[in-house]
Design a protein that fits this description.
This protein has 88 residues and is mostly helical. It has a single domain, classed as Non-ribosomal Peptide Synthetase Peptidyl Carrier Protein, Chain A (Orthogonal Bundle). Helices cover 52% and strands 0% of the residues. The protein contains 3 helices and no strands. The longest helix is centred in the N-terminal third of the chain and has 18 residues, at 8-25. The radius of gyration is 12 Å and the shape is globular. The chain starts with 7 loop residues before the first helix and ends with a helix.
Length: 88
């Protein structure tokens, strides 16, 4: 995702995704970059990811397809997926 062409909605969503991840992992949101991989860079396991996804579902009243979680590798992937769910 190109930060220069990011819409306000996308920036707000990325900030919210980072906030939820930071709360789940007990790290500062500033340490989370959109290009960070969830599993390798942030050391998230499936339980962490499920917790983040549940928080996002509650926050935005959406239902995320858990079968698609394996294809979500980075913070940006998660951000884009949630944005698509909200806008569909």
């Amino acid at each position: 995702m190109n930060h220069c062409s990011q819409t306000k909605e996308e920036a707000i969503m990325l900030s919210k995704v980072k906030s939820i991840i930071s709360r789940e992992l007990s790290i500062r949101p500033e340490r989370i970059a959109s290009e960070n991989t969830l599993r390798e860079d942030l050391d998230m396991d499936r339980a962490d990811l499920l917790s983040v996804v549940t928080d996002l579902e509650d926050e935005y009243s959406i239902v995320i397809d858990y079968n698609k979680l394996d294809s979500i590798r980075t913070v940006a992937d998660l951000d884009e997926y949630v944005l698509n769910m909200i806008n569909s």
